């Protein structure tokens, strides 16, 4: 496809549509990056913020001036500099005035400018604004040719390309923005620490990132909190210009009568809305996902005060807070992406040293341009003063020329070799300035300006001296924003990276005793309490009890199936004791053609004997069998008619294995003959000519082998002399003692 392109002269030239779209999208992307979303590394401002401050300066809204309506400021910005929607401009103005959004606000707002709860500011017709001292420092010297100006969008005026920026605004206040294909995210920092890093960089231009991080150890957010990021991660983030910082809420324990306590949240992470944070905690509390917490209350006034009441005074405060940090925005991450526009308006990701050096280079350029501007003013003034002194020395002749000559200006220039400017100054001089006192003042001013001219000329020739001047300026900023002052104090405290506190399941779920019943048809339920008498338990018609075991709500179940897989079920997920429960195969992904072999309460550190119907098996660690999904975990490799037949927990004192086959033959061998595996077919336990494995038992040989007698299972027999049945693994075995169950089962 093609599109039309109108060339100069009105001729229409065909171009490829893809090329036309590419060109226009590229222009749009560059416009978004350079004129909207990315800050300038020199003054740390985006165009809308820069235009706001410059417009307010033109309105003379200095820190000591009366406030003006925000609507007036927004109107001037739209009309002169920034032809965009009034709401977007007002939103930018509001953010510059919010002390919880900016570490050092650039606008002093009067009225409702929003709050940390996320409430919006009042309409622009109600609020008023003026510049702060920090904004004044950013604008200082802007009329002294310190920066370049460009035409405004309508060509009727000029606007600054960048501000002189006598304040390290980019790092002090940070910046965030999203452009086309790129973004920026820079957190605020402490000014005293920034100044320390700048001064060190002036002395040591090749300073390492590690040293700069020592001087400037991390962000300083306006809302405080605790910075708990590891130092190595901080150094790496500042080295690459990309990373993130972990910030936690600040909290304290408040003891109350009766031995209880409450948790008081006094500071929350940056850019977290307090109201939404409390709503989130309350919602989790309602969903019973915060079992350690009883209630949350907002007692905030001017300061943040969120009250958390634990469910029990026995709950450890650190455990409670660790659980909340994992579940809520009481812990958050702030990204670092120092993607900025450099002095040539090229976007790039800079490291910490490059950002600091860019600010210093800008201040050096501002100093040079300001010095040259002042030097030019002095030279021009000295020229006028030289003309005045000539006039005083030749006062009578000057008066005569002015009174008698037709072209007094030309005559003065010819008579005293004056410049046109000097001649104009003499002709514009008032009679009262001809006093002797005025001559003395002029000579005094001439002498002072001559000295200043020599000093400024020397400054322009001496680069080390210029850097000393910049160091003095930075030292003055450091003193103004010292940590000893309320504005300059560090709000975000540096803390050790917290150790990973594992919140046990017992702390999250109330530990209550339950009795788990699973029927022959696979219906499972959990009844409250440890019940020994299960005669009252009811089952569906034709169904009966198969598994019954005691557990707690914090336990996990291992469900061993005939397909060789082992599934994990949380006891707290089981249906209650009312009714018949639910089919266990719906709670796990158990195929319809397979059945449950065994149901066990998981014992951390325990071991199991797993064996298949073909007589193969191995020992497996229970911890290796825990599955995280409903699909379970494959343990025994079985296929065809071979299925999982036996799962037995191995007692710690066990040293022997007894196996019995369908052929009613018993074999006893050492437990150490079995390998420990996490998955596989295993090794042969007993060899059969016909049939397969019927059952297996793990026991301590010195205590003998036991099995139940009769159908009721009330009587137990123990055989201590097992010599006739001892053998090696994979042997055929011998007929068991008389009285061994014909079912070939040990229990």
TrEMBL record:
UniProt xrefs under SUPFAM superfamilies: GyrA/ParC C-terminal domain-like (SSF101904), Type II DNA topoisomerase (SSF56719)
The protein's assembly and partners: Heterotetramer composed of ParC and ParE.
Residues at the catalytic site: 126 (o-(5'-phospho-dna)-tyrosine intermediate)
Free-text function comment from the UniProt entry: Topoisomerase IV is essential for chromosome segregation. It relaxes supercoiled DNA. Performs the decatenation events required during the replication of a circular DNA molecule.
Record's subcellular location: Cell membrane
Catalytic reaction annotation: ATP-dependent breakage, passage and rejoining of double-stranded DNA
EC number(s) stated in the UniProt entry for this protein: 5.6.2.2
GO biological-process terms attached to the record: chromosome segregation; DNA topological change
Protein name: DNA topoisomerase 4 subunit A
Gene that produces this protein: parC
Species annotation: Limibacillus halophilus
GO molecular function, one term: DNA topoisomerase type II (double strand cut, ATP-hydrolyzing) activity
Domain Topo IIA-type catalytic: 38-501
GO cellular component, one term: extrinsic component of plasma membrane
